[in-house]
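re the bet — no i am not wrong, look at it urself. input seq straight from the record:
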Amino acid sequence: MKRLRTIALLLSACGLLGGCNAVVLSPSGYVALQQRDLLVEATILMLLIIVPVMVTTVVFAWRYRQSNSAAVYEPDWNHSTYLELMIWSLPLLIIICLGAITWASTHLLDPYRPLSQISADQPVPEDTRPLRVDVVALDWKWLFIYPDYGIATVNDLAAPINQPIEFRITSSSVMNSFYIPALAGQIYAMPAMQTQLRAVINRPGVYEGFSANYSGAGFSGMHFTFRGVSDDDFKSWVAEAKAQGTGLDRAAYLTLERPSEDEPVHRYSSVDPTLFKAIVELCVEPSKMCMSEMSAIDAKGGLGITGSANLMPFEYDKYARRGAVFGVEPSYVASLCTPDEPTGSKPDAPFSAVPDPAPARLVGAGLRLPSFTPLPPTSGPSALRIAFRRSGS
C-alpha cells in the first residue's frame, strides 16, 4: 500500500506539472529565445560541477563507511596535488566560460540596443521602421500609447509579428516591472525616469504580460494581454481603437491615474502628443513645473533655499486615499519674478535666463531678505570694498 500511495502521489505531481506553461523555456520572441539559450548554457556549465560533486559525495560516503574494512585508513593524510588541481582548475575554467558568455550576451542583449536580427536566420531589413510604444505603469494597470498611430489602450497591447518593437517605459508613482515572458526579459518602470526595451515577436498568439515587482494592494491584478498578430490584423486593431475609443488628454489621464484595481480593457481614439513626456517629467498637472524647466533653473544658479520645497505630490495619494494630512498644503513654483515683472511672469511664458553679466537680479516678491554676515576686515581699504560689493550682489 505504501508503494501504491507513492506511485499515486508521483502521478498526481506529474499531472499537476503537466498543466504548467513553461513559457520562459519556450518563448515566441527572438530576444527571449536568446535569453533562454543563455539560461540553458549557464545551467549546463554549472551542472558540470554540481553533478560530479553530488555523485562523489555518495561514492565517498559509501566507500569510506565504517563497515568497509577494505578501505584504506590514513588518518595523517593532508594533501594531494591531483585533487587540488581538480578542485581548483575545473571550476576556474567553468567560471571563465560563464564570464565570457555573460559578457558577450550582456552587450548583444542590451535592451537599449537596436535589433539587428528578427530571427536567427533573418536580419532586420534596412527600410524597416520599428513600432514605437510608450508604456506607463499606473496604480494598478498598464497604459500603452502608440505615438505613430495616435491611440492608447489600457491593459491591451498588440504588435505585428516580425516587426521590431521599441518600448519606452516609465511609471506614474512607484517602481514596477514590465514583463512579457514570451517576448523578452523584464525591464523596470520607474517614476521620473525612462527605460527602454527592444524586442520582436515571431509567432502569432495571445501572451500574458504583468508586473514582476510588487507595487501595492492591486498588484495581483496588474496583468495585461499581449497579442502577436499579422500586419492586416494589426491595422484592423488600430482602426477599431480609433472608432470605439475616446480621447486621452491631460485631464482624462489625471482621472485614469488614480489608483484602481482590476481595471478592464479600454481604448482611446486620440492622445495628447505631449502626454508621455509630461508623465516622465512629472508635470501633467496644469502650471506645474517640469523637471527640464527646473534643471534649466538649476543650471543658471537655482532658486536657493526658496526652491527647497518646490514639490507638488499627488493630492489623492497624500490626502484622500490614505486619509491623513502630512504637513502643510503642497506648494510649488509657478512663475519667476524679475525687476521688470515684480509680480511674476505668466504661467505659460517660456523660461528665459537672466543675461550674464547683468545688473538685474531675481527678486523674490514677499520673501524675506537673506541674512548676511560681512567679512571680517583684514588689512587695507580694498578688503572692505570687496566685501561690500559681494553683499550688494
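see?? The longest strand covers residues 131-138. told u. also The chain is about 35% helix and 20% strand. so pay up
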